[in-house]
């Protein structure tokens, strides 16, 4: 990324799509009284997973096979009903009540390509998938406006988070390229605390260094007129 303050529109759209999907699962759960929490991840690898979002379900053991199947379909349907459909999930039929059966049949044909593994497992919980699909459709269409509002809010939050994340990443890259000559006061405080800890209980330096440690812990290095840094050499000089 070239501009650290701007995120590409596609990323925002993708966050919005994932948020719609997860909120779809969420509202289906809610309709059955199953508590759930939808989340969108900003960096998949941070969560050691290859998915961009998830809907965590509580009390899943209480859900009936039909409910699980409805919940499984709901994420996908929310994407469609909110107008954010990935190309792999495009369908020759419009998603309307009059063509619902045809739409569902086309979905079944591309089932493995369209649905993620955990959604597949949920959907397959119930034998009459057409009934579950219909159940999900009528639940989600009622919540469409709410899903869009919440997903927009989530995508905005993710945008802010991504900008912060990119800035932090850049700062770390910068640090790696130009290792700092100074270390932050907090790190200095830790080093100094360890040093003092290692001294004999009667060592007079314990007392002498105590005020320096206290000010470092407040983020102030008195010798440097309140600057937040202390050189490693200076810290080394404190050692016997
Ligand atoms: Zn899903």
Structure notes:
With 240 residues, the chain is mainly alpha-helical. The protein is 59% helix and 7% strand. It contains 9 helices and 4 strands. It has helices at 9-31, 65-81, 100-109, 111-114, 117-123, 129-177, 185-197, 205-217, 232-237, and strands at 36-40, 53-57, 182-184, 229-231. A two-stranded antiparallel sheet has the order 1-2. A two-stranded antiparallel sheet has the order 3-4. Helix 2 (65-81) crosses helix 6. The two termini are 47 Å apart. Zinc ion binds at residues 21, 25, 75, 116, 119.
Mean pLDDT: 80
Number of strands: 4
What fraction of residues sit in β-strands?
5-15%
Q: Could you name the ranges where pLDDT drops below 50 across 5 or more consecutive residues?
A: 1-5, 224-229
N-to-C span: 47 Å
Shape call: elongated
Portion of residues within helices = 55-70%
Across the major sheet, the strand order is 1-2
Biggest sheet record: 2 strands, antiparallel
Helix/strand-derived category reads: mainly alpha
Structurally, the number of domains stands at 2
Q: Give the C-alpha Rg.
A: 27 Å
> Count of DSSP helices?
9
Ligand types: zinc ion
Brief synopsis:
The protein has 240 residues and is mainly alpha-helical. The protein is built from nine helices and four strands; from the N terminus they run H-E-E-H-H-H-H-H-E-H-H-E-H.
Outline the secondary-structure elements.
Elements: H1 9-31, E1 36-40, E2 53-57, H2 65-81, H3 100-109, H4 111-114, H5 117-123, H6 129-177, E3 182-184, H7 185-197, H8 205-217, E4 229-231, H9 232-237
Antiparallel strand pairs: 1-2, 3-4
Bound molecules: zinc ion (ZN).
